[in-house]
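Q: Convert this sequence to structure tokens.
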Amino acid sequence: MKTNYYIITGISSGIGAALGKEVLKNNGVLFGISRRNNPELIAFNSKRYNFFEFNLKEVNKIESLIHSIKESISPEKCSSIVLINNAGIVEPIGPVWENESGMLKDNLTINLVAPAMLSTCFFKSFNLWQCRKMIVNISSGAGSHPYQGWAGYCTSKSGINMFTKCVALEQNDQPYPTVVCAVSPGVVDTPMQKQVRSTDAIKFPRKSRFVELKKHNLLSKPEDVARKITQIIEGGKIQNGAIIDLREM
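A:
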């Protein structure tokens, strides 16, 4: 019997943790990448959950990471393999001239450089595999709409959208192409949103909008977002290079 394999970054909480549970619930094999493990996933199914403690700021180690994962997968038993670049950070928040330069670098590294490197290594490792292959980049509406105080976050998400479109064009020329898409999940009730709501309004003038969304219970649940993303993956009808807004589903 063949197996569906998933590589998911940012597995410790939020959307990543919810995606991990969906994968395990659907009998997939999960490779979770994060700085911290998730005890709930271990309890859910430790036999099909493989955790890699990893800091995505160390981009020079990504090639070795993907190689290690590849060595754990048998091509003959692989029905599909999916990379979900979910990990992301919103800080630094505030005018760029007030931010520490190192924090801006970390934002761009984790949100843009690391997913690009993970995708590149994924292509190198699996391009000749004939199973179904897909990369899902978790984006944001902030990739299309500028927010005062979110220069790093908006820039990185805009960049991941363009990266998605470019590599999708390249994959269309491959004999066994990987489908690449970006998904904007909307405003989700995650630790990142809690951080946004606790930010000084002087640094982030749109804070009140997110406070109101939480107050009126208008935030999406990570579990609902994870189910929708899983449906996209399993549906198999996504155009290569698509930028998908879950709020329109």
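The CA atoms of residues 32 and 51 lie 5 Å apart.
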